[in-house]
Structures are given as C-alpha cells and as structure tokens.
Amino acid sequence: MNYFKLEENVDRSELNIIILGFFNPVIITPFWLSTKNLIRETDAINAKIRIMHNEIVDYDLEWATIEITQKRFHIKCTQEPFFEITRDLVVGIFSLLKETPIDSFGFNHTKTVSLKTEDRYYEIGNRLSPFSNWSEGLDDPRLQRLEILDKESKQKSHGSILITIYSTAANELNQAVGININDHYPFSEKEGIKFSANLFIEYWDNSLNIANNVLSKLSNSLQL
Amino acid sequence: MTDTYFDTFPIETVETVPLNGKKEKAEFILNDAKNLICKDFVTEPFGDIVEEPFRAKKEANDFAKKLFNNFRMPSTYYTKTQKWLGHVVAINEEGFSAVLKDLSGGGTDEYGEFSFKEITEDDLDLISLGAAFYMSLGFISDKGTRKKEEEIRFQRLADYNEDEIINNGLDMTSGFINYFK
Asked: Can you tell me the ipTM of this complex?
C-alpha cells in the first residue's frame, strides 16, 4: 500500500531515561564518571555544570544532559548517535551504585515527524480525533495534544505505555508532530528493586521495538 | 512515591534569570506546546522550595516561554542517522578490523577496517580484541547548516575496583537514610 510512513519521516529524535528511587546526587559528577571510565576524560573536562549540590546535580555533557535529585535520575539525549552510549552510561552508573533502591524507570522516545504538507498535518488530527465531532462547538479545530494510555500493555512484562502526540507549531516546526512514547516500568512501592543491568538492557531492547511499532502501526492505521 | 503513570514522563527544567538577586530554578511539566505548568520553583539555598508562588510562577513561566523554542528544539541535531555496533576482530600496527552490525535497519553484518588515526586519543586504550564500539553516519544540522558527520565511540562498561566498596557503602548509607525519612 502506498501511504505516508511516519517511521520513514522522522526528522529528529530524543531519548529521555528517567529512574525514580533514592539517590545520592553528588556522587555522580562528571569527574566521577570519567574516573570510573564511563565517559571520556574530555567529556568530563568539557562538561557544563549548572548545579552541584548534595540535593541536586545538573550538568551537560556534550551529548547528554543529566539531572539528579534525591528521588529522580534523568538523562536526556537529543543526539541520536549517542542513544546507545546514553543507555550504557546508565547501565554503568547503576552497575557501580548497585545498592541504589529503584521504584520505577521509564524510557521516553520522542520522534518529531515531518508531515511535509499542511493537508497531511490537518488530516492526522482529523483521523486521530475526527473534527466532525467538534463541528457544532468549534469553528476551526486542530490537533494540539492527544494522550493515549495503555495501562497494562501486553507488549512487555508489566507497566504502562503512554503515547503523546502533539503539535510542534509553537517550535516553528510547521507541518510536523511530536510523538512521545513513555514506556513506564513501576516496581513494588514498598521494597523497590536493586538495579539489574540485564533487566535494564532487556527492557531497553523491547522498548525500542515498542517505539518503532507505535509509529509503523499508527502509519498503517491512519493511512495518510 | 506518587502513584501516577506520569512518574517517568520527562519534566523539563529551566534555570531562570536571577529574581531579586537570587539564583532560581524551575521545573516544568510540558502541558502542551504553548503552556508549561510550573511544578516546583526552587530557590537557593536549596531546600527552600516555594510551592508555586504566583509571582515566581508567572515570571518563571514567561521566561520559560521565551526559552521554549531553543529549549525543546536544540539548534544542533542529528537526522537520518545510520548506526552500527562494531566488534574488533583483529588488530595490526596501523589499525584494526571489525564486524559491524547494523543497528538502524537490521541489515546484514558488514566488515570494516579502521586506522588508529580515526579513533580519538581517549578511546585508544579501549581497543582490544572483542571490544565493542558504536559507529554512526548521518547528517548534523547546526543552525540551519547541514553536513555529514561520522562518530566512533568505544563502549565503556563499569570497572570495579577497591574504591567501589567505599562508594557502594556511601550510596547504601545514603539510600538507607533517605528510605526512612
């Protein structure tokens, strides 16, 4: 079938890995990462530190941004060649700090899809949430933001998938939509878990498949 | 721990301009493309967490909106990236050979030869038989200018040594104390 494929028109990608638990932020400095051979020495030297405090650290490596509070670890990478390196860094950090209790973690895959034409941009909103439903109350409805939650996904061992589709017009990227796939894994609230590199990598591999499937299946359903 | 499906959704963080001489930092939940909800507003010294004061929230929101375009969409980004995972299979005086697995499209394995000159000095010590590295080829767009970019980085995995015993101990203690807070 000859239809527009979202997965083939991804203009840029972003990865966010977020882990909730109990952290000692000030341990995880660029210098520590370099000393443990988890990043290059030049990465540590060139790191831009915004805050370094017992309760929060926040800095940029040239290819990722790291923000850690006592309850939240967040690494963000906007450069696609570094996604696996970002994953390895998380695995490295928590393999060393293996006693860190973890309550949940999530992979966020954000894809900005260029739809090329104004008509297609209008139509994606219309097919996701038919504008005819709104015609009596609204004069010129448009897709702004849509969230769909798969509460207990069968595509993975446990946890939810939250898909957000939003307009990127405010970012001066007209005729494009952002699609964020939040692949969330909660663990026991009482006990949490200790980090397992094998489990994390297994979930990562599955998460990449889930993200790719979301785009290809959506393309197939929408037939733009 | 809050029982919400949004726990691991990205929260954007913006450091604001100094207000009243204080350095301030705001956390935002991205509500939609035009509206950012200010979640926490943290002023120095840390621990002084203001619960969404109207003035601070408004000013922080205004500031975030100004930053928003650059903040969400970095001026430098990669597009149409092809990625491979390589494993070193032979080393000689000039360089090394590697088997390359396509990470982008799932194509067949390829074989490549690399000169040491292609590898950054920081990674030279990591070259050994079986060592893994990532190679990517794509376009980098920098403020509207697009050019080809190749990146080779050797995989870095955690080394364990005696310091880890101390660090693990510190981390355990910290986690234990926080758990009962």
From this structure: 0.87
